């Protein structure tokens, strides 16, 4: 088997990295974009004496669990790799991965219980982090997620797993940054102003905290004006902050943030407790699932 070979493969299992597993005369092939039960046409992208990697280029016979992704960008965006598999089966595959790891790595033969599902599979993600860049010729601002295994930004106009208001805020930033002479970040040259946009949304009251991550160590006039314009445009926004990150790093947030307009936090409520969430606060991105986790732990320790 060699790189660029085209094969028809029967997908038997699922790997812990999210690839379908096929075997050709005992030789293992890990197939991107494949679901157990699929028969696919795949192109070999890498091969060695022990295994090969491949990418699905066509589905000959779909698995009973293969579905049409509800996001139009799923095939090019690197954020939701498994959306072509029905959600209940995704949960079962992940349960099997944990069970297999316990058996093969920890040498513990244990039955892992059924995964507790998220109450929502759309509009559930209440934290978004979009990298920002800028096209070379037109100087158009790009905002979105990376293509799989690259740092090339997919310019996302609508993401169905986050609150719809986030799309509108990001679109405003995309369309008006240049009006305030705010440039997008060039990762290779380490130049430009705006590196990321981070939005925290409260499932409790719908309020949002917008953070502009900039390639700077302190704020400046046009940045303050831009942050204020964002705040004034949307009544749902509780506040707009600036986070300073001038380091050559893939870490998104720097250690220092400054509130430019409104409040520097939003509030979330779980199990009757109120949590204050700021620009640098860690908090679960899916509040409804987080509540299920906390309730499970609370009930277990009583």
Set out the fold topology.
Blueprint: E1 6-10, E2 13-14, E3 20-24, E4 27-32, E5 39-47, E6 51-61, H1 87-104, E7 127-134, E8 141-146, E9 153-155, H2 164-176, E10 194-201, E11 208-214, H3 221-233, E12 237-244, E13 256-262, E14 265-270, E15 273-278, H4 287-301
List low-pLDDT spans: none
CATH class of the largest domain: Mainly Beta
The number of distinct β-strands equals: 15
Provide the CATH architecture of the largest domain: Beta Barrel
Global shape: globular
Distance between the amino and carboxyl termini: 57 Å
Average the pLDDT over all residues and give the rounded result: 96
Helix content: 10-25%
Give a quick account of the main beta sheet: strands, pairing sense, barrel closure. Answer: 7 strands, mixed
Q: Structural class per helix/strand content?
A: alpha+beta
Q: Give Rg in angstroms.
A: 22 Å
